[in-house]
User: What shape does this take?
Amino acid sequence: MRRDSPSGPRDKAPRRSRPGVLGFLVTPFGLAVLACLGLAGWALWSGGVVDGPMARQVRTSSVYAAPGTGLDVTAAERVIGNRRLVVLLLPADTEPRTGCDKVRRTAAGTLVLGLSRTGTEYDTYSCALLPGVSDENFGRALVAETTVARGVDQFADRPLEAVKLVVVNYDMLVRANIVPDGARTVSPSLPRYLVAGAAVLIIILGSVLLWAAGRRAGRAATDRRDRIARATDARTALTAATAVFAQQIIDLDARYQDGPDSFRGEYRKLTSDHLALLDRVPHADDAEAARLTAQVETLIDRARKLS
Assistant: This one.
């Protein structure tokens, strides 16, 4: 009979493959994690995480002024107010078209004017990002773009006065029904609403779960207290019955020597049943204690008849 040597080849038990990243992602929890990551990425992107300084400023303000242009941004914001107008004051000798390109998404719904000083004049470029500019409002958008910057060259060294003139031109366009009237509104992106809704939903669900867990814990504590009380009552009754029976045995023991044979036989049987019962008392639960109490009461009746 041929045997393999201890150092020879042995059959190896197949190893259980551990689920990798793909296995985790296809689980419900993994899919939920992917959904949360997608929502978070969407919120970051729509909230301007990839925006440059200019777009980030225009997202919440109607004025952007590059360093060194000399424009009082706070005063310019008060002049523009809540109009659908955005003014970009770019560094000198910069192509103003780049300003429109950088804020095209964040300044949607407004009339944008880019200003860049060139010598004693302004190089201007405006873009109407108003609704329907590529369809029925194309002509109005073209008029607005060519009119809003009219006359700003005379204030090349006073940028705040140039902004005031732009506002006057804008109001004229509104009165001529070329630019739609109304205030500019900055609304949070949809993912932010979803995140806020999810936070509220989590709070509500958390409160419901805490309430349910507290109620369940309270019910469990009440049941445990009732079981303990029932067990205590059952053992108390068993202890009292056992004490009564023990006293009867003591009283009968005094008559054992002088009693007849029938008395002695019944007494020995009674004490034997008593000893068998005592072995079960220390390990009895509440249900067993109730059964043992009934048995002890039966022994008490037998002892009473024997006496």
